[in-house]
């Protein structure tokens, strides 16, 4: 699996997903819980709008000086004995990790949750090398056991599964014999994973934010699995998207606070880990070898464009948790590991319009996403910008729509045309009208009236009434 | 005060009652209403679908038509937002940008105008019954008008307001989204209709013609007996 998770058409995907009533109930419930928690956490912190502006400023500053901070990060990590590899493509990143695996003759690889490794399809590559790759985030672990079911959310990847379904997966794959109680399921996973941790040759983590001033990789988890993945195996690899970096620990603190509050409504997560190179002579734990893989994979192509602000994203999923479209279609409909509003902006940029040109239209531009974003990415504006690029720069819109919009431009800018058109509307629509309602409309109205009634055009337009009104009040 | 009315194309063609109510309410509050007949559509259908160049033709026409107005008032949060956005659309155009900025500065959504400019919260309206209010997305999030409608409604004699569950969620209109992604739109509007039904309100009130056409059209199709009213009509009830 890489960023694209299937080959179905967007429409077919959506229709299939919308039939999944469990998923829809789970998503709606989670949205309501997470939204309330986020709002409570923001209120508790106070001055939320100022914190957002501060977060935005930090992200913009870092992106504007990304080359500088990446170099600082890289130099500082190397000083601490770490290895740094800049990967231009997914393939480069995977090849580098593969080369370490070969060199170490590694068999068992443990992973903490990482969206960028999903994006580059690292697990598949390592499995083809004959490695046993084990996800240790509970959600990811469940999905991996379930024949690599793709994540449907970037923070809670198994959101679409209920405890009964999880129990079935455990029963089939882990010889589980207990009930569907979440505590029993979690305990079982924990026991299994503990054995794996002790046998792992290599640990792979993602990176929430790298810290340039010290050459550290910062990780945020509630399960403590990232700590285990990075402490126990002798070789450690961190994979990060090239934009996931802050200048100093001061900015790290601000962004972690925004991330945990926005993602799950927590002041802090249970574990916040900063990894800084391999263990030193005085240290008793940690890996003896440390690699940082910095992945571009299309990101530098977004820098400096009208879409640059999407790189401000800190992967909190607040936009997903408020999106009324995601609410009904779920994560898998987007056909990308990045779903929801952020996915609808980012996926076409990383994966191209050929496969993902419908995504920017999967929004009412209601701006709930923009409102929720803790680093103020203008998501609804970026979705709109995609539409403009698709229509005007790429010329990918259907001919009929182009003609209609052309006619709109001409009609709406000419008084006689608009006046005549609006005056005629009532009589043109008469054959379709019954009791002032159109319930089966022609042409472009067909799609509307398949779902809802449409009002018949006024027999007397407002402007006609107003003219009369002016006359009566003696003004005209 | 001399108020130049931007009626919106939906009101002009489909909801003239809303336009009439707007005029009557404002006149009662002492305003003199002007309606420039050169007004067309604000350009949203084309703009939101990505046809910015086609939309600009309508936008220029609107700027030229409303340029001389003292204040512009419109009974639609979404169309007011579009007017205010013209300055961003024309940000690289030295001729049209300043004209668009001036337009933005004097544009008000109806309830915002009554509460913030006229400083009136009680317009003397009367309407018996239970109602719920759908806050439209563009009006609340982009225009930032959240409290004005609630203040006005709280003073309507005889009207009991019930809060709408998940009011913040979009109704699924989204302009061309409603037909382009009709299957998703249907699920969204159905949830909205269910929320309205849950309040047991007899009136659904809103401040945007598009949203009301969507929710109202679906309620009518599903045989729900709830009456859909634009806030201008409520404020004009006596």
Automatic annotation (TrEMBL), chain A:
<comment type="similarity">
    <text>Belongs to the LutB/YkgF family.</text>
</comment>
<feature type="binding site">
    <location>
        <position position="373"/>
    </location>
    <ligand>
        <name>[4Fe-4S] cluster 1</name>
    </ligand>
</feature>
<dbReference type="InterPro" id="IPR017900">
    <property type="entry name" value="4Fe4S_Fe_S_CS"/>
</dbReference>
<keyword id="KW-0479">Metal-binding</keyword>
<dbReference type="InterPro" id="IPR024185">
    <property type="entry name" value="FTHF_cligase-like_sf"/>
</dbReference>
<dbReference type="Pfam" id="PF11870">
    <property type="entry name" value="LutB_C"/>
</dbReference>
<dbReference type="InterPro" id="IPR037171">
    <property type="entry name" value="NagB/RpiA_transferase-like"/>
</dbReference>
<keyword id="KW-0677">Repeat</keyword>
<keyword id="KW-0004">4Fe-4S</keyword>
<dbReference type="InterPro" id="IPR024569">
    <property type="entry name" value="LutB_C"/>
</dbReference>
<feature type="domain" description="4Fe-4S ferredoxin-type">
    <location>
        <begin position="310"/>
        <end position="377"/>
    </location>
</feature>
<keyword id="KW-0813">Transport</keyword>
<dbReference type="InterPro" id="IPR017896">
    <property type="entry name" value="4Fe4S_Fe-S-bd"/>
</dbReference>
<feature type="domain" description="LUD">
    <location>
        <begin position="70"/>
        <end position="295"/>
    </location>
</feature>
<protein>
    <recommendedName>
        <fullName>Lactate utilization protein B</fullName>
    </recommendedName>
</protein>
<feature type="binding site">
    <location>
        <position position="319"/>
    </location>
    <ligand>
        <name>[4Fe-4S] cluster 1</name>
    </ligand>
</feature>
<dbReference type="Pfam" id="PF13183">
    <property type="entry name" value="Fer4_8"/>
</dbReference>
<dbReference type="GO" id="GO:0046872">
    <property type="term" value="F:metal ion binding"/>
</dbReference>
<feature type="binding site">
    <location>
        <position position="313"/>
    </location>
    <ligand>
        <name>[4Fe-4S] cluster 1</name>
    </ligand>
</feature>
<dbReference type="GO" id="GO:0051539">
    <property type="term" value="F:4 iron, 4 sulfur cluster binding"/>
</dbReference>
<dbReference type="InterPro" id="IPR009051">
    <property type="entry name" value="Helical_ferredxn"/>
</dbReference>
<keyword id="KW-0411">Iron-sulfur</keyword>
<keyword id="KW-0408">Iron</keyword>
<feature type="binding site">
    <location>
        <position position="316"/>
    </location>
    <ligand>
        <name>[4Fe-4S] cluster 1</name>
    </ligand>
</feature>
<keyword id="KW-0249">Electron transport</keyword>
<feature type="binding site">
    <location>
        <position position="323"/>
    </location>
    <ligand>
        <name>[4Fe-4S] cluster 2</name>
    </ligand>
</feature>
<dbReference type="GO" id="GO:0006089">
    <property type="term" value="P:lactate metabolic process"/>
</dbReference>
<dbReference type="InterPro" id="IPR003741">
    <property type="entry name" value="LUD_dom"/>
</dbReference>
<comment type="function">
    <text>Is involved in L-lactate degradation and allows cells to grow with lactate as the sole carbon source. Has probably a role as an electron transporter during oxidation of L-lactate.</text>
</comment>
<dbReference type="InterPro" id="IPR004452">
    <property type="entry name" value="LutB/LldF"/>
</dbReference>
<dbReference type="Pfam" id="PF02589">
    <property type="entry name" value="LUD_dom"/>
</dbReference>
<feature type="binding site">
    <location>
        <position position="366"/>
    </location>
    <ligand>
        <name>[4Fe-4S] cluster 2</name>
    </ligand>
</feature>
<feature type="binding site">
    <location>
        <position position="369"/>
    </location>
    <ligand>
        <name>[4Fe-4S] cluster 2</name>
    </ligand>
</feature>
<dbReference type="InterPro" id="IPR022825">
    <property type="entry name" value="LutB"/>
</dbReference>
<feature type="domain" description="Lactate utilization protein B C-terminal">
    <location>
        <begin position="385"/>
        <end position="471"/>
    </location>
</feature>
């Amino acid at each position: 699996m890489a960023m694209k998770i299937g080959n179905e058409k967007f429409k077919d995907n959506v229709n299939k997903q919308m039939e999944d009533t469990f998923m829809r109930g789970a998503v709606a419930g989670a949205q309501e819980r997470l939204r309330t928690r986020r709002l409570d956490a923001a209120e508790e912190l106070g001055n939320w709008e100022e914190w957002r502006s501060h977060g935005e400023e930090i992200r913009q500053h870092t992106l504007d000086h990304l080359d500088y901070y990446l170099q600082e990060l890289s130099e500082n990590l190397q000083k601490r004995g770490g290895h740094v590899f800049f990967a231009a493509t997914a393939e480069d990143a995977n090849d580098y990790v593969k080369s370490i695996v070969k060199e170490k003759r590694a068999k068992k690889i443990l992973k903490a949750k990482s969206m960028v490794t999903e994006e580059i399809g690292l697990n598949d590559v390592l499995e083809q090398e004959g490695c046993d790759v084990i996800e240790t985030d509970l959600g990811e672990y469940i999905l991996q056991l379930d024949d690599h079911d793709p994540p449907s959310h970037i923070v809670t990847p198994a959101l679409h599964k209920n405890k009964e379904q999880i129990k079935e997966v455990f029963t089939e794959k882990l010889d589980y014999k207990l009930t569907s109680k979440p505590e029993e399921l979690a305990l079982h996973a924990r026991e299994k994973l503990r054995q794996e941790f002790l046998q792992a040759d290599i640990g792979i983590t993602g990176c929430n934010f790298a810290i340039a001033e010290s050459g550290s990789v910062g990780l945020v988890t509630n399960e403590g699995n990232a700590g285990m993945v990075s402490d126990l195996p002798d070789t450690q690899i961190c994979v990060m998207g090239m934009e996931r970096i802050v200048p100093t620990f001061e900015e790290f603190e601000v962004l972690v606070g925004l991330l945990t509050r926005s993602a799950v409504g927590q002041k802090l997560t249970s574990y916040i880990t900063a990894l800084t190179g391999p263990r030193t002579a005085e240290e008793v734990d940690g890996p003896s070898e440390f690699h940082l893989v910095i992945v571009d994979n299309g990101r530098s192509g977004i820098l400096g464009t009208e879409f640059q602000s999407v790189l401000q994203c800190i992967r909190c999923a607040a936009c997903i948790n408020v999106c009324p479209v995601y609410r009904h279609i779920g994560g898998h409909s987007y056909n990308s590991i990045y779903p929801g509003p952020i996915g609808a902006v980012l996926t076409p940029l990383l994966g191209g319009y050929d496969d993902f040109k419908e995504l920017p239209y999967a929004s009412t531009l209601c701006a709930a996403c923009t409102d929720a974003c803790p680093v103020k990415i203008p998501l609804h504006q970026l979705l709109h910008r995609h539409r403009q690029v698709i229509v005007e720069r790429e010329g990918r819109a259907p001919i009929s729509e182009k003609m209609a919009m052309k006619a709109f431009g001409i009609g709406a800018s000419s008084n006689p045309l608009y006046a005549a058109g609006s005056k005629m509307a009532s009589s043109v629509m008469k054959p379709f009208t019954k009791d002032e309602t159109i319930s089966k409309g022609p042409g472009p109205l067909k799609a509307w009236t398949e779902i809802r009634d449409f009002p018949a055009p006024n027999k007397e337009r407002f402007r006609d009434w107003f003219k009369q009104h002016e006359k009566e009040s003696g003004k005209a | 005060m001399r108020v130049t009315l931007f009626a919106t194309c939906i009101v002009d063609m489909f909801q003239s009652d809303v336009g009439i109510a707007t005029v009557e309410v404002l006149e009662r509050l002492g305003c003199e209403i002007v309606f420039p007949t050169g007004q067309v559509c604000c350009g949203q259908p084309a703009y939101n679908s990505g046809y910015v160049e086609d939309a600009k033709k309508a936008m220029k026409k609107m700027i030229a038509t409303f340029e001389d107005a003292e204040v512009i008032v419109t009974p639609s949060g979404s169309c007011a937002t579009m007017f205010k956005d013209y300055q961003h659309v024309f940000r690289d155009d030295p001729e049209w940008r300043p004209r668009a900025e001036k337009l933005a500065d004097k544009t008000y959504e109806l309830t915002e105008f009554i509460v913030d400019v006229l400083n009136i919260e009680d317009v003397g309206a009367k309407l018996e019954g239970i109602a719920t209010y759908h806050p439209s997305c563009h009006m609340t999030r982009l225009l930032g008008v959240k409290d004005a409608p609630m203040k006005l409604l709280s003073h309507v004699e005889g009207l009991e307001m019930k809060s709408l569950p998940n009011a913040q969620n979009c109704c699924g209109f989204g302009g061309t989204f409603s037909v382009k992604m009709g299957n998703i739109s249907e699920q969204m509007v159905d949830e909205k209709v269910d929320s309205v039904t849950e309040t047991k309100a007899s009136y659904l009130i809103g401040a945007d013609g598009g949203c009301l056409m969507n929710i109202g059209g679906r309620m009518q199709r599903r045989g729900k007996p709830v009456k859909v009213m634009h806030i201008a009509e409520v404020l004009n009830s006596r």
